[in-house]
């Protein structure tokens, strides 16, 4: 299991030279691009129309929005009062405050609408509401869920929950305080849910067990939530979890510990599981430093694995040393079926992800008493394959997971100075290929070049150590898994 500490310092009872312990921390304070056909299918599904109707709608919108909308908005100037796409007529409707511009709108191919208030007036109305609200106590406008511009109705609207008399009064008071004319305002009641902030679930980020007070880390995003370590939830279900920002995140719906060491957290509607792990401040999967998960191929003994966690960030890397390990922790619990790696870890990293390349390996359970500033550290992770099977969930993976994998088919020596022609199989849907290179097995891979064809020239850079090359296919927005690497040797003379 992960190292378990109270009040941010470790409690160790064993007398081994290098102790093993849980890595949870007791908290002291709260802390793809779709193809056009896929897009049409999504539009048809979400707007509840046929796919042919969706195709026609998208084509009409494209024709209206690409040039007509920005052109008329610019040409109408101060008389412009808004614009919207009318699905019934499949035309762009453009509002104006001047009868003199009606013919201009018609001749451009749009449908005109004569209204009282210009778009600039509506913008000023919203700005006044923002300014007044900024100076008021939150309770005086908290029941007003939103305000903004309603272009088709030529008004500034304020949305409140239906049947709430105090909300209606607060809305009226805010309008008066902002000095808005009642003719420009619409107070709208709604029965919809109140809007909430939305956040991304990313492997390696902090989680806070509000029931037990433990700080741990997200492992991997799965269908409906994410997985973490079982000892972070005490091996029981029902615990309430909050995210890295202190916002309620979800509930523990599955947990195993001791024996195994894994747990499943079902997230609420404020959170969206994302297919990446990392520790950089930008949590979008496309951000440099985050790794998009593309599968769960198990790494072999000796393979390099890396991990992330809320305490030490990451990546922190090591090699797989042994598998199917039974660990007797100093706190008295025993966990079976684990994998041991030479990567460092510290309290609070519990539950965080171990990866090999883009492949999920498991969640951190425990390790030695050393810190990541020390040498000869080690950690244990519980394999992801067992966790996915136990809870009947699937990894959330990046779109590149469905992209084919190029395999090297040619590595022919071109000259006696280490130059080779490297060729590989073509992948359907790819428009480029990345060639990555490393020097021997002790150095990380780096991007050597990106090419559009299925072959290129590469150079082995050392006469004593082979250079390794691997290739992956890419689209304009994402890349797939790497093919098998090939080792090439620099020849100072002809072989």
The proportion of residues in beta strands is 35-45%
Q: What order do the strands of the largest sheet run in, or round the barrel if closed?
A: 20-21-22-25-24-23
The CATH topology of the largest domain: Thrombin, subunit H
Assigned CATH superfamily of the largest domain: Trypsin-like serine proteases
Q: Judging by the overall fold, what is the CATH architecture of the largest domain?
A: Beta Barrel
Radius of gyration: 29 Å
- Regions with little confidence, pLDDT below 50 for 5+ residues: 2-19, 29-36
Query: What is the CATH C level class of the largest domain, in words?
Result: Mainly Beta
**Contiguous helical run count:** 6
Q: Percentage of helical residues?
A: 10-25%
Shape field: flat
| Distance, first to last CA | 53 Å
Helix/strand structural class: alpha+beta
Defining traits:
single chain; 5-stranded antiparallel β-sheet; 6 helices; about 15% helix; GMP Synthetase, Chain A, domain 3; Thrombin, subunit H; flat; alpha+beta; 6-stranded antiparallel barrel; about 500 residues; disordered N terminus
Description:
The protein is α+β, with helices and mostly antiparallel strands and 495 residues long. Helices cover 17% and strands 38% of the residues. The chain has helices spanning 36-47, 51-76, 102-108, 119-134, 165-178, 384-391; strands at residues 3-6, 9-10, 20-26, 80-86, 91-96, 111-114, 146-150, 155-161, 185-190, 199-203, 206-209, 214-217, 220-222, 225-228, 240-242, 248-256, 262-267, 271-277, 291-292, 304-309, 313-328, 334-341, 353-356, 359-368, 379-383, 408-413, 419-424, 432-439, 446-451, 455-459, 467-474, 479-482, 486-488. Strand 23 (353-356) and strand 24 form a beta hairpin. Helix 1 (36-47) crosses helix 2 (51-76) and helix 4 crosses helix 5. It starts with a strand and ends in a 7-residue tail after the last strand.
């Amino acid at each position: 299991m992960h190292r378990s500490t109270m009040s941010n310092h470790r409690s160790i009872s064993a007398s081994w030279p290098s102790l093993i312990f849980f890595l949870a921390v007791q908290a002291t304070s709260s802390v793809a691009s779709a193809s056009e056909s896929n897009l049409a299918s999504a539009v048809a599904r979400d707007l509840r129309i046929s796919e042919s109707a969706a195709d026609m709608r998208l084509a009409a919108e494209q024709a209206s929005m690409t040039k007509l909308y920005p052109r008329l908005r610019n040409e109408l100037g101060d008389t412009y009062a808004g614009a919207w796409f009318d699905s019934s007529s499949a035309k762009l409707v453009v509002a104006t405050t001047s009868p003199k511009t009606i013919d201009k709108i018609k001749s451009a191919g749009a449908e005109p609408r004569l209204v009282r208030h210009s778009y600039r007036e509506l913008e000023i109305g919203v700005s006044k509401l923002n300014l007044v609200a900024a100076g008021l106590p939150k309770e005086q406008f908290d029941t007003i869920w939103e305000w903004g511009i309603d272009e088709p109705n030529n008004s500034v609207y304020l949305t409140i929950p239906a049947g709430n008399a105090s909300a209606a009064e607060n809305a009226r008071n805010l309008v008066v305080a902002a000095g808005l004319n009642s003719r420009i305002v619409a107070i709208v009641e709604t029965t919809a849910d109140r809007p909430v902030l939305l956040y991304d679930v990313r492997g390696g980020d902090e989680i806070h067990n509000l029931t037990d007070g433990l700080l741990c880390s997200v492992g991997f995003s799965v269908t409906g939530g994410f997985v973490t370590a079982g000892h972070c939830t005490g091996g029981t279900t029902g615990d309430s979890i909050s995210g890295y920002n202190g916002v309620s995140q979800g509930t523990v719906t599955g947990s195993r510990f001791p024996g195994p060491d894994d747990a499943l957290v079902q997230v609420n509607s404020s959170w969206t599981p994302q297919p990446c792990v990392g520790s950089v401040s930008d949590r979008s999967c496309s951000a440099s430093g985050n790794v998009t998960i593309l599968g769960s191929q198990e790494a072999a003994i000796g393979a390099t694995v890396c991990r992330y966690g809320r305490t030490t960030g990451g990546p922190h890397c090591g090699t797989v040393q042994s598998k199917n390990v039974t660990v007797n922790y100093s706190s008295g619990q025993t966990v079976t079926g684990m994998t041991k790696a030479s990567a460092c870890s510290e309290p609070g990293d519990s539950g965080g992800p171990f990866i090999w390349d883009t492949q999920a390996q498991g969640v951190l359970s425990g390790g030695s008493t050393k810190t990541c500033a020390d040498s000869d550290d080690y950690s244990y992770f519980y394999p992801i394959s067992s966790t996915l099977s136990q809870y009947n969930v699937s990894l959330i993976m990046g779109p590149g997971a469905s992209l084919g994998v190029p395999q090297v088919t040619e590595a022919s020596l071109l000259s006696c100075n280490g130059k080779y022609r490297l060729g590989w199989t073509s992948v359907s849907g790819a428009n480029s290929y990345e060639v990555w290179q490393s020097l021997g097995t002790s150095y990380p891979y780096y991007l050597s070049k990106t090419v559009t064809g299925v072959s290129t020239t590469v150079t082995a850079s050392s006469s004593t150590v082979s250079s390794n090359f691997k290739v992956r296919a890419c689209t304009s927005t994402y890349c797939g898994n790497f093919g098998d690497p090939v080792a090439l040797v620099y020849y100072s003379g002809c072989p």
